[in-house]
Structure formats: structure tokens, C-alpha cells
Specification:
With 323 residues, the protein is an alpha/beta fold. It has two domains: 133 residues, Rossmann fold, CATH 3.40.50.720; 177 residues, Rossmann fold (3-Layer(aba) Sandwich), CATH 3.40.50.720. The protein contains twelve helices and 13 strands. Helix 4 links the parallel strand 4 and strand 5. Helix 5 packs across helix 7 and helix 10 runs parallel beside helix 11.
């Protein structure tokens, strides 16, 4: 039997489409980009769909899940699921999932890249050179520095493995420390006080929103650098702007901003990006060719597994309302 599957993320490759079709699925690709689809349009797009592979922009509400009774599985092509009402998905007997294991290496690479770019003052030096000033600006190393990782999920662990090559001392704070090799588990105040770099990899929840606020920024080690490849909202961007202008912390590498979900914060984001000691990217850490190929495939295999009644790939299922 042919099963319809709605696929709305950008950059879904032909190999993923072929995988779904080989598994007996008819792939539905909307004419509009996911970010342009209005809430009232989703029920029509989901009509008859048995699964939905979801990109970064759609919001899955209780009302939408109820309006799509045939949709058995909702999976984010990624790992963040704050835009999906997982409680509703469970309550209404469906499966809520993520593409676990697909993009943590890409994000960890990006975090290291941001650390190096800010520490070595890459943007500042290039701006000066374009203006005709080729004088050397003394910068700093990542080698043998102390790096604090906030959140030790897949990405935090991948980052810790990379930092071993730089002979870094790695501190971490996480709700469930479990003795990862070469990592010292400490509380957040200790991590902020001792780290030369602070890298955020926590999920965005009511408990973690603005975990890096004015007080936390003031508590950071003098000369420290903040990196956020986790979620916009973990950092109070307005407080960060004030702190950077005052000279502490020394700089920031930002892949995520509050402005992604709050248009009123766009001006603050633009002011952050204008600072010479800020390196910014548009939530692109996971968007490598290789990372997208991995997450596309995992999402497709998860959909097929749920529809076929077999075990999905490890770590993908967040809630399972079938049980």
C-alpha cells in the first residue's frame, strides 16, 4: 500500500526521496517553502499523510495533530523539538521523533570553528585589512585552554572529543553527569568562573531560557569567549550586547539568536553582528552537505520504521503514544 509522507524541510536530497519511495511512500513536497506556509494551510497539506518530516520553521500544535488523524509519526529533521507539542503527540497516540545521531559532528566542528575564529580575531583582522590596515593584532590560542561545555548530549560529547586534540581541560555541566572520559563535571557557577571558552549545547526549556544572563556573563572568567550553537534563548542577547560593549566577555561566536523566534529581538541581533569581536552565522552549524545527508536519511528511516511497525533508529523516538 502506498503511504503518503509530507516532507517540508529544505535541502532534502534525491537519495532520501528514493529511500522513501522504495519503502512504499508517496512523497508530498509543498510548492511553498516551509517558512512561508501559514498555520491554516497545514491541515490541507497533511490530509491523508501517514508521516511528516518537519523542518525548522513549522509549529506542530495540539490542534494540528488532532486535525491530521492519519499522521502516525512527526519527526524533526534535526534534534531540537521545541516547536513540536510532544505532549499532544503522545496524548493523541502518535509518535514524536528527532533525527538523532545525524548532525552532532557538524555542529561540534562549527563550535570549534567559532572558538578559533573569535580567539584568533579573524573577523576583526580581515575588516582592518580591507580598510588598508595590515598591522598584526595579537590573538589567543585554544590549545591547552579550559573549555566549559553546557549540556553533554551528543553534540557536547562530540565537542569534548575534538577538544582532546587541543589538549584542553574540559569542564561540563549537565543534569545527568555520567563520567565521560577526560571531562570534569562541575556546577554552572564553577564552569563560568574557570572557563576560557564557554560553549552552549543545552536544549531550550523554561528552565534553561536566559541561563546566560547579565549575572552569568559577569561571572565569566576575564577574557573568556562565549559560543552558542545550541538555541537562541539560552542567552539573553540584550544582556550579551551590553556586556560585550563593556569589554567582558572578550568576544562571542553565535550560530543562534533570540531573533529567530522573536522578531522584536532582530535589532539586538544586528547590533551584535556589527561588533568586531562577534562572529555570527545564521543557525547553519548543522547544515553541511554531509550533516544534512545523514539527518535526511535518519528521518526517512524513522518514518518507514514507524509505518512498518518495526524499531526506529536508536535515540530517535522522543514520545510514543502507541504504547
Amino acid at each position: 500500500m502506498i503511504r503518503a509522507v509530507l516532507v517540508t524541510p529544505p535541502n532534502v536530497d534525491g537519495r532520501t526521496i528514493a529511500l522513501l519511495e522504495a519503502g512504499g511512500c508517496r512523497v508530498i513536497r509543498p510548492a511553498k517553502a516551509e517558512s512561508d506556509i501559514q498555520p491554516e494551510e497545514w491541515p490541507g497539506l497533511l490530509a491523508g499523510a501517514r508521516g511528516w518530516i518537519i523542518g525548522p520553521h513549522a509549529r506542530v500544535t495540539r490542534e494540528l495533530v488532532a486535525a491530521a488523524p492519519e499522521c502516525r509519526v512527526f519527526i524533526r529533521r534535526g534534534v531540537g523539538h521545541e516547536r513540536l507539542d510532544m505532549e499532544a503527540i503522545r496524548d493523541l497516540g502518535r509518535v514524536g521523533a528527532i533525527a538523532a545521531g545525524g548532525n552532532e559532528d557538524s555542529v561540534a566542528d562549527h563550535a570549534v570553528g567559532l572558538m578559533l575564529a573569535v580567539a584568533r580575531r579573524v573577523r576583526e583582522q580581515q575588516i582592518a585589512m580591507l580598510a588598508g590596515d595590515w598591522s598584526i593584532r595579537v590573538s589567543g590560542d585554544l590549545f591547552r585552554k579550559t573549555v566549559g561545555i553546557v549540556g553533554m548530549g551528543r553534540t557536547g560529547r562530540a565537542l569534548a572529543r575534538r577538544l582532546a586534540g587541543f589538549e584542553c581541560r574540559v569542564l561540563a555541566t549537565t543534569p545527568r553527569p555520567d563520567g565521560a572520559d577526560g571531562v570534569e563535571f562541575v556546577d554552572l557557577p564553577t564552569l563560568l568562573r574557570q572557563s576560557d571558552f564557554v560553549s552552549l549545547h543545552a536544549p531550550l526549556t523554561p528552565a534553561t531560557r536566559h541561563m546566560i544572563d547579565a549575572r552569568a556573563l559577569a561571572a565569566m572568567k576575564q577574557g573568556a569567549i562565549l559560543v552558542n550553537t545550541g538555541r537562541g534563548g539560552l542567552v539573553d542577547d540584550a544582556a550579551l550586547l551590553t556586556a560585550l560593549r563593556a569589554g567582558h566577555p572578550a568576544g562571542a561566536g553565535l550560530d543562534v539568536f533570540e531573533a529567530e523566534s522573536d522578531h522584536a529581538a532582530r535589532d539586538t541581533a544586528m547590533q551584535l553582528l556589527a561588533l568586531p569581536n562577534v562572529v555570527g552565522t545564521p543557525h547553519s552549524a548543522a547544515s553541511t552537505r554531509e550533516g544534512l545527508a545523514r539527518t535526511n536519511e535518519i528521518a526517512a528511516r524513522c518514518v518507514l520504521a514507524v509505518l512498518d511497525g518495526v524499531e526506529p533508529p536508536p535515540g530517535c523516538v522522543v514520545v510514543d503514544g502507541r504504547r
